[in-house]
Amino acid sequence: MKILMLTPYLPYPLLSGGQIRTYNLLKQLTEKHQVTLFSLIKDPEETKYIPELRKFCEDVRVFRRSKAPFTLRNIAATAISSYPFLVIRNYVSEVTRAIEQELQRTNFDLLHAETFYMMPHLPQTKTPIILVEQTIEYLGYESYAKQAFPLLRPLLNLDIVKIKRWETYYWERADQLIVMSEQDKEFIKRTTQVQNDIAVVANGVDADWFSEKPKVAHKHPTVLFVGTFKWLPNREAVRFLVHEIWPHIVAVLPTARLHIVGNAPTNEIRNFEHGYPNIIVKSKVYDIRDAFAVADVLLAPVFSGKGTRYKVLEAMASGTPLVATPTAVEGLHLQESTHVLIGRTGQELATKTLQLLHSASLRNRLAQASKKFVQIHYDWQSISSQLDIIYRRIGASNENK
């Protein structure tokens, strides 16, 4: 089948969850399908990564959007538009023209859009559209708005209304909506009027790749937090970790270290390593396995957002035991005390983390069980086969029209 895929990022290098997902699925799906990739970039430097994607894609084209999101143009356009800021900052008119030309030139079986805010680029077409929602966007922004500076909340809430309106609109416009978990699916069915079929294609992990790099001996008990800080729930989570969890841990275990790893850290996050004991912030890690290799525990205090967390799956694949909130592992079907230790408050999460730091046998038991679990249930090959079935079903329905 011939597929045109649209992404709001170039799916390489593997710095964010979205890039990891798209890259691994592309590698699997292009063994069976011809995929043309249209991606947005923020910096011309990113074009150096195109050859990696051309190894398996039929063609790769990139389109530049503004590097800084909060430009005067974007803010002014949002003020007078029915579209939210999230759509405005990711809209490039050249993409729509390029898609129109590509559809005239090539008889595609499917259009695949990653994230609802790529959907406005699509022209009117009879080609079936698959929309993949890696998270429910408006929920993450709702959580952020509740904690924002009071004077900003009315503007943020207005933008959230726009996000919800257009996100649900595009859920209905797509011929097939795909979400990351059964919980996401049930949430959409329960809270909206969307009648379209909703499929679940979860995130995955390359368990074999993570197994190639074993644990490294290190001097201090080490807790790890990993996540891209472009995503609002991750910024909330690391702030909660540093303020509400970490003081409890170092009070009991003064030699403990906290490694905060993720691209695009804010100044607030960078300053954590200066204002708090034993914290190291790393924004550039070229092989994420190096971060897991020296970690005794991954701590995931995520309280908002939907989807599934790549770093949870990666921790399990790397043999790193996990302490998390229920939200962080939602939809993964993990068993508490077998695959993960669960905490709901700062004190609970600190206590569970300390349990693991004090017990090598408990760490080993959780690590072995969770590693086996992801190898069985979250391998990219099995995940991609689920998407392949959907491709063939939607593509076949187009042929029969």
Number of strands: 13
CATH class descriptor of the largest domain:
Alpha Beta
**Low-pLDDT sequence parts:** none
Distance separating the two termini: 16 Å
Q: What global shape is seen? A: globular
CATH architecture of the largest domain: 3-Layer(aba) Sandwich
For the sheet with most strands, the description reads: 7 strands, parallel
Tell me the CATH topology of the largest domain: Rossmann fold
Mean pLDDT: 93
Please bin the fraction of helical residues. Answer: 40-55%
Major beta sheet, strand line-up:
3-2-1-4-5-6-7
The fraction of residues assigned to DSSP E strands is 5-15%
Order of helices and strands: EHEHEHHHEEHHEHEHEHEHHEHEHEEHHH
Tally of helical runs: 17
User: How many domains make up the 3D coordinates?
Assistant: 2
Q: Structural class per helix/strand content? A: alpha/beta
- In CATH terms, the superfamily of the largest domain is Glycogen Phosphorylase B
Give a structural overview.
With 401 residues, this protein is an alpha/beta fold. The chain folds into 2 domains: 2-204 and 380-399, Glycogen Phosphorylase B (Rossmann fold), CATH 3.40.50.2000; 207-377, Rossmann fold (3-Layer(aba) Sandwich), CATH 3.40.50.2000. Helix content is 47%, strand content 15%. The protein contains 17 helices and 13 strands. It has helices at 17-29, 50-54, 72-80, 85-89, 93-105, 137-147, 153-173, 182-191, 207-211, 232-252, 267-270, 272-275, 288-293, 310-318, 346-358, 360-377, 380-399, and strands at residues 2-7, 34-41, 59-64, 110-114, 129-132, 176-179, 198-200, 222-226, 257-261, 279-282, 297-300, 322-324, 341-342. The strands form 2 sheets. A 7-stranded parallel sheet has the order 3-2-1-4-5-6-7, sandwiched between helices. α1 (17-29) packs across α17 (380-399) and α6 (137-147) runs antiparallel to α7 (153-173). The radius of gyration is 21 Å and the shape is globular. The two termini are 16 Å apart.
